[in-house]
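Complex record, four chains
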Amino acid sequence: MIVVMKRSASEADINAMIAHVESKGLKPNVIRGSERTVIAVVGDERIAGIGSLESGPGVDEVLPILAPYKLASRELKSEPTVVQALGMKVGGVNIGVMAGPCSVESEEQIIASAKAVKAAGATALRGGAFKPRTSPYSFQGMKEEGLKLMAAARDVTGLAVVTEVVASEDVDLVSKYADVLQIGARNMQNYRLLEAAGKSPRPVLLKRGPSATVDEWLLAAEYILDAGNPNVMLCERGIRTFETHTRFTLPLASVPYVQAKTHLPIVIDPSHGTGHTHLVTAMSRAAIAAGADGIIVEVHPNPDKAMSDGYQSMNFDQFAEMMKQCGRIAEAMDRKLG
Amino acid sequence: MIVVMKRSASEADINAMIAHVESKGLKPNVIRGSERTVIAVVGDERIAGIGSLESGPGVDEVLPILAPYKLASRELKSEPTVVQALGMKVGGVNIGVMAGPCSVESEEQIIASAKAVKAAGATALRGGAFKPRTSPYSFQGMKEEGLKLMAAARDVTGLAVVTEVVASEDVDLVSKYADVLQIGARNMQNYRLLEAAGKSPRPVLLKRGPSATVDEWLLAAEYILDAGNPNVMLCERGIRTFETHTRFTLPLASVPYVQAKTHLPIVIDPSHGTGHTHLVTAMSRAAIAAGADGIIVEVHPNPDKAMSDGYQSMNFDQFAEMMKQCGRIAEAMDRKLG
Amino acid sequence: MIVVMKRSASEADINAMIAHVESKGLKPNVIRGSERTVIAVVGDERIAGIGSLESGPGVDEVLPILAPYKLASRELKSEPTVVQALGMKVGGVNIGVMAGPCSVESEEQIIASAKAVKAAGATALRGGAFKPRTSPYSFQGMKEEGLKLMAAARDVTGLAVVTEVVASEDVDLVSKYADVLQIGARNMQNYRLLEAAGKSPRPVLLKRGPSATVDEWLLAAEYILDAGNPNVMLCERGIRTFETHTRFTLPLASVPYVQAKTHLPIVIDPSHGTGHTHLVTAMSRAAIAAGADGIIVEVHPNPDKAMSDGYQSMNFDQFAEMMKQCGRIAEAMDRKLG
Amino acid sequence: MIVVMKRSASEADINAMIAHVESKGLKPNVIRGSERTVIAVVGDERIAGIGSLESGPGVDEVLPILAPYKLASRELKSEPTVVQALGMKVGGVNIGVMAGPCSVESEEQIIASAKAVKAAGATALRGGAFKPRTSPYSFQGMKEEGLKLMAAARDVTGLAVVTEVVASEDVDLVSKYADVLQIGARNMQNYRLLEAAGKSPRPVLLKRGPSATVDEWLLAAEYILDAGNPNVMLCERGIRTFETHTRFTLPLASVPYVQAKTHLPIVIDPSHGTGHTHLVTAMSRAAIAAGADGIIVEVHPNPDKAMSDGYQSMNFDQFAEMMKQCGRIAEAMDRKLG
């Protein structure tokens, strides 16, 4: 951590800061420049309260140096983590493909979806049973009944089941039916839920919050890792920006950046990341070319009748065509889908 | 809702859309322009699944017209809601002032803070007992012990107690000690928590998520109102933008905008909204001049030793000086603090 | 255009708006819903002053329907435009590759760069002679001397020369030496410059401003097209968002979105779009997989000695390796580099 | 400047960086921490090319310490600059008030506007003669004829004339008629124009670009100061964010932040900063309470017939009422309007 003193800082201010740093058990290195003094603090800056240095007299700003996460860090574990759930592998040479409807709506719908995405090459079935919805008046999901239908679809197809859990008290129930617990963007900083997921035996797909920095996202992963669950997949689903022609902005540079910082695999969600069906194929290809370890895509038998997210869901033909194109890009990357 | 058809839409596409709208029980008005056809849909567009119209063939985009919230709407209830908790009133001629430390750290700290902010004119004591923290390695709060200390501070000063609740299962416990339940920015879309708070007898201070649109924020309030609790205060605490000289960007135009759309009072948090102590006084004044119904400010006996948020906390003297300045602005607005 | 009246709008307000719309020569269609009245305005909404409808009494908001640009629109010209400059083709089956240093620094530097990027498969040489720099104290470019050196590099390699023009009065001079005029992000709305470039015989590479919407960007292109120059290439170079781990956020969904809206080719700049050399290769691959018609990349013989943008420039080996990888992706897209 | 080395950096990497820093004439201080080595560079980091350190082997990131501007800095000149133009003073105890239409449309319109805003207490007349417009099909202003009409309005009222200049070649012409040169948001980084304005005898009102950081904005001011013109007023007019209920987001924390960093006065534009007439009064009051040195407001005799920006213009009565309210806030700040 670097403490930059104001030009107007007095000797007393500087000495007070030196004493304060030492009182935290850290070692200050004082560098007096022509215009300002800076104090480089050596030691673990991730201790409680250190950010409060900024409120000291004569301090201009405090610049952190160390990444705030540890277990998620590539510096701690250099080989990439490969997460596996039934037949799906995410990471290494494998690019996991999770596909299916936004919401589970009926047995017919979920079984048909599972068969179609399996036939096109997906390795997991996504589908929402507990639906966090922006409006209290929207369809809130089929809940446990939806979980049972997904499990039935797994029985038919062998696909791994990926589904969202929205509260810590539901983790056990969802873990009973699902192969992967999804934590949604709205809950990325629901720490009670992260801790509960960290105690589940299931791998976790952790979506990035739409205004979360990468550090905040990796710290959310750190909560899960720290609670004992090593199988975390990061999922980039787009950030909020001034752009309105897409519902969110999908920053694919997250892929190489995150891969340099962490050993955890990264999955891209081009459906939420664009919000429009006609943009999903191009962004799936791009995700794979950027080096993503997986994709998660919304597919529905009849998107214009979907109970949620129809505007960004593909029908079966569109998905099958997309998979062909993605397969060629994966090959050009010396990787394979599924 | 307006369905804008593509220029290339066929008659069949248009007729299919008309039939689809009618099948939802809505009335389509078809307007054929020189360049495009648009279909104005009359009726309540807030029904499940209507957004999926966009995936219909030949559709270019779908523009909503009605605000998606009802109970929070000013169209439903035109007189402003005034929320009261002990001696604090928020709304009408009164500007509520909530002040205190980020975290409760000790009896001495919270009692001293309560006395100081009361002396300066605050009407409520804020303080965190359950702390949602970005890092799992940060201080997580004193939990129930912290709640007890806040209640003790209320006994001494008569201030209303405002404190955060982070999970639905804690609502009863926190309601036992607190006068106002705060729902933090990270939990603005934790719907299980919103529903639980909606069943509590305590007023709720609902912080805006840093990437939430105003509609999403008002829909979160709608969850609480819909569950039966009419006493919701909205709290603007800044949004994530490209600016880095402040931790968040505090958009004060939210005040007049929200007041035109909803009857609920709006509170400004200049501490989180700027992230730097030296900007808090100016933004508190500005909040009041913009017409805010309350402010919530971080105050600590010794900010550079605070266990959290020291960089944005005021000491007692700074707060007292700020209150003098804010009092003059409130008077120029024909309102009063507290 | 749809004029949404407030719920509280009176009959007089509605009639006044109807009269006002008619006075503009447009046809109002009045639709009276259960909650509100909306007026659908048929006719060309792109006339001066129509936006001011919003200030009429009883008006809640005005929603545009038609895209504001015409010449750039895909509805006007459905086949994609292919821009050619010497041996470089941008669009159709060809993916143009423009590479070279941020600034021209010396004859040796620019000739070496030209040879290296040509050997790796580039079809154009980029390099700045007139440099718009954030600080007045930064190196401002070699100006005409730099243009001459680029022309010399073209003589040696046959590469097309792409270079920035920063003011209308320089367009003739730069057109004398360059094969493509680049208009930088800072000047995207310098309309005097756009008009002058519209009268040049050279193709134009128009960078998107970092906070420009896609409509604003296409309207900037419209200025050039309207002035008579049909050879415009759009260049996405990233937008300003809250992300700080990249200098800008590169929204690759611009590629399929823009291709649906306009016939103009789109080029991606992964160097400015990420701001870090180690992210450029992945984003170049992704750009091509997203369907981009070209890429423009910063390459320098010795990036850590570069006079500008060294942190985002590749050295020759890095570029050659990147081109190999990009070639494979292009092949998987049934396209070819250069 | 602090150079943070990667954890994996070798001794050779560190030594190479030390040598490189020394070769720039700067002094490296090497600090070896338990996890990483950082090199604190003492000396003027604003020299050309220093940013390129980041591309060195083993470097993780480079953190700047000094502000990149000098002449604009409060550290250089501690007393605030007060800018004067005719009877308007901006800074110190005075809050300058510039008001008038977006565009000059006719003699009648501009004279009536000047009289009305003068009567309400404005000290300068704003009005556009050269209009930079997003669309080539929009009204582009009356040009020199418009300047003459503004000068006539000055003759009648004594108000200072504030008008935009859009190109370096127009600076002399506009300086002939105007008392203050406005440089618009789109041109904030049009360096040729900044340099020309720096040579004009007229004060300059420099608007912030909607995606400019404060440092970029102050560096743009630095171009003007460096060219010899000390009378620069900064104008905050809102930034681009994800918010859509306002056209831009007006970050009033810019006021106290900028006042701490620079001696130049800061003016707020609540018309562009919100984009809706009904939000302007509240934000003008808030701007003054935040400590702004001036406001600039769009006022039109008949906003719903305005040729530009009618949706954000006030009529005369609205402006007069706003000025009364603002006057009370100014008094509470111990300042006065005009």
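Note: The first strand of chain A starts at residue 2 and ends at 5.
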